[in-house]
C-alpha cells in the first residue's frame, strides 16, 4: 500500500542513488547495508515499481526509478525544510520576515542584503513591499509588515520606534532641454513658480498638510517615483530625485542638476531608518537585516552622506548618536 511508504525508505532510496551503492548509503546513514537494502526493497514492493537494476556489480536506476527520484528528493527535502523551520521557530526565528522598503532607499543595497539573508536564513521566507513617504508606514500599522526601511517623517507615529540607518541624497534635476537646465547661474526661488515642479504624493495622511521639498506654486503630483522619473526625462517638469536613481541620466546628459537658491549644490539628505512596532521588535532574522543595512551606511554606501543638509523640516541624523536598542 502506498500509504505505508515511510520517510526512512525514501531517504534510503535517495541516499543510495547519491552515494552510488547500498554500502556507501549505509555508511552515510550509519545503518547496516542489509537494513538499507531491505528499506529500498520494501519501498519497491509497496509502490509496485522496480527502482534499481541489480543485475550488475552496482545497482543502477531503472527508467521508472529515475522519474520517481525527483519526487522522492522533493519529499525528503520538504521534510528537512519543515524540521529546520520548526527548530528556528522554537528558538524564536521568524517563519517569514515581512519588510516594507521606501522607494527612495537604494535597492541595490537591499538586494545585496537579501542575497546574504537567503544564505544565512534559508528557511525564513522574505516578503517585500515597496511604498513611498508616509504610505511606507501603512503596512507596519496594518500588520502586513513587521519592519520598515523608510524615510523619516517630521514626527514618529505613536507605537513605533526607529533606528537610524543613514541618509539618501536628493538632488534637483530637469531634462537637458528644459528651460531651467539652461539657466545661467543660481536659479532664484521666485523663478521656480513659472515652471511645474513634479512632486511625489504621499498616499497616506501621515504627512498631511506638509509639503516636503515643494518650492514651486505650480505642481504636478505623482504617486509613483518611477512615473516621476519618466516625466522628468520627458521634460514635463523639474523636481527632486534620489541621486543613486539619476546618476546615470546625469552622466549621459539626459538630466541636468539644477543650482537653486538656498539649496546646497551637493543636495539634500533624506534620513532613512529601520522602523518597527515597540510591542513587536524584530526577531533574529529582522535584527540581522537591520545590522546589515547599518553596516552599509557606516561604510558610506548610502549615497554620499557627507556635507549635505537635511530635507527642510526633517532633522539630520547625528552620526555620534547611539542606535536605539530593540525593545524587550
UniProtKB/TrEMBL annotation:
User: What are the residue boundaries of the HTH lysR-type domain, all occurrences included?
Assistant: 5-62
GO MF term (any one): DNA-binding transcription factor activity
Q: What InterPro entries does its record include? A: LysR_HTH_N, LysR_subst-bd, WH-like_DNA-bd_sf, WH_DNA-bd_sf
Carries keyword Transcription regulation? yes
| Keyword Transcription applies | yes
Q: Which keywords does this chain's UniProt record carry?
A: DNA-binding, Transcription, Transcription regulation
Q: Where is the stretch described as Disordered? A: 304-328
Q: What protein family does this chain belong to?
A: Belongs to the LysR transcriptional regulatory family.
PANTHER family found in the cross-reference section: HTH-TYPE TRANSCRIPTIONAL REGULATOR, LYSR FAMILY TRANSCRIPTIONAL REGULATOR
Q: What is the official name of this protein in its record?
A: LysR family transcriptional regulator
Instruction: Give the source species.
Output: Ameyamaea chiangmaiensis
